[in-house]
Amino acid sequence: MSDLPNCPACQSSYTYDDGIQLVCPECGNEWSKEAGGESSDEPGIRDANGNVLVDGDSVTVIKDLKVKGSSSVIKVGTKVKHIRLEEGDHDIDCKVEGIGPMKLKSQFVKKA
């Protein structure tokens, strides 16, 4: 039996120690050993890997995203610079090169 904590994102018991951090193989969540998981009292919007995002950061899209009302697609690996954070479901306001102003969900990006 493992003495490691369950994953704070999906509650999986299959977490493992990866040197500096703990990793969940089921959902891909990573968190520091010292934090013991994500704390709900820490402010901020987090990316897909759990890193805190701030205004002005650059992020990379981790999944192909269809643009609603258009046949365009934001391809995986697209880098978006100078993001602005907002409250709500789509919490990143940005300008995607070649597409224009856009709102993204933080779960589909990682900090660049």
UniProtKB/TrEMBL annotation:
Domain of life, per lineage: Bacteria
Domain Protein YjdM N-terminal: 4-32
InterPro entries: YjdM, YjdM_C, YjdM_N
Domain Protein YjdM C-terminal: 45-112
NCBIfam families per UniProt: phnA
Record family assignment: Belongs to the YjdM family.
Protein name: Alkylphosphonate utilization protein
Organism, scientific name: Vreelandella malpeensis
